[in-house]
Design brief:
about 270 residues; about 40% helix; single chain; binds NADPH dihydro-nicotinamide-adenine-dinucleotide phosphate; alpha/beta; 8-stranded parallel β-sheet
């Protein structure tokens, strides 16, 4: 298997460009799914406190016998735990459930604008970063004005903004802002939870390379320079989503996928999720 490419984050920390997500996987099924992913060759795992499966992730990590430094573990702070009174305890609880001394990336899950606590919360993440218990910190679902506000009021540029991004929602404005400010773009629901896998151009490109539509979409993300974390609980798909280094999309094919942008959200809108 070809090695997974890395992205160097703005603080020098190296992150695999292709990882494994576990949203909506029940805790008791998560250990098997993550074990399958590690067996297939994934080393980056994306979870969150709200997924309720950090324990399941931790069990798979411990059972794998892989050296900690070979793994890249991301988790996220839930909205209810924003604010300086709660965020640190929530981080401690996540570490405890994961069975880890540190995470590689810790994210504020949503800006939750009606709470108006993310600037204060980010200050807690900066302290966690300084303590060495997160190797990098960042945000998720932040909009351009949220990122500008962090810039004005905090000292550490987020290493990553993890956003909904797939062929049907290409997020050009945010990606341009990230590129300008050294923030890595990480795509959640990179397969649009399956909603783009029947799109004509994707099916056609898959046929011409002898690969699956999901492999075309993962490849499109990699060639676009985004970090991508497809989820599956199906061992064959888990392997397939990583087997994307034996073909390349041409410029014409990249353009054809770019043409599928249609503002389709499969998840919540950051304007209204609180
Ligand atoms: P994805 O876009 O990764 O799609 C997952 C769905 O696609 C599942 O139904 C899966 O089925 C199916 N699938 C996976 N691989 C294939 C394949 N090769 N062929 C056909 N179908 C396939 O959705 P997610 O929403 O899970 O997003 C990925 C990750 O992003 C999450 O797990 C989570 O880590 C993160 N995320 C973060 C959010 C945030 O707010 N920060 C929000 C949402 C997600 P099956 O499992 O049955 O095989």
């Amino acid at each position: 298997m070809t090695a997974i490419p890395n992205v160097t984050l703005n603080n020098g920390v190296v992150m695999p460009q292709l990882g494994f997500g576990v949203f909506q996987v029940p805790d008791e099924e998560t250990t098997a799914a993550v074990a399958s992913a590690l067996e297939a060759g994934y080393r980056s795992i994306d979870t969150a406190a709200i997924y309720g499966n950090e324990r399941g992730v931790g069990k798979a990590l411990a059972a794998s016998g892989l050296p900690r430094e070979d793994l890249f573990i991301t988790t996220k702070l839930w909205n209810d735990d924003q604010g300086k009174d709660k965020a640190l305890a929530a981080f401690d609880a996540s570490l405890d459930k994961l069975g880890l001394d540190y995470v590689d990336l810790y994210l504020i899950h949503w800006p939750a604008p009606a709470r108006d606590l993310y600037v204060e919360t980010y200050g807690v993440l900066e302290k966690i970063l300084a303590s060495g218990r997160a190797r990098a910190v960042g945000v998720s679902n932040f909009r351009v004005p949220d990122l500008r506000r962090l810039q004005q009021h905090t000292g550490v540029t987020p290493a990553v903004n993890q956003i909904e991004l797939h062929p049907a929602l290409q997020q050009h404005e945010l990606r341009a802002f990230h590129a300008e400010h050294g923030i890595a773009t990480e795509a959640w629901s990179p397969l649009a939870q399956g909603a783009v896998l029947q799109d004509g151009p994707i099916v056609e490109i898959a046929g011409s390379h002898g690969v699956s539509p999901a492999q075309v979409v993962v490849r499109w993300h990699l060639q676009s320079g985004t970090i991508v974390i497809p989820k599956s609980v199906t061992p064959e798909r888990i392997r397939q989503n990583l087997d994307v280094f034996g073909f390349e999309l041409s410029d014409t094919e990249m353009t054809a996928v770019a043409g599928l942008d249609r503002g389709l959200r499969t998840g919540p809108n950051p304007d209204t999720l609180n």
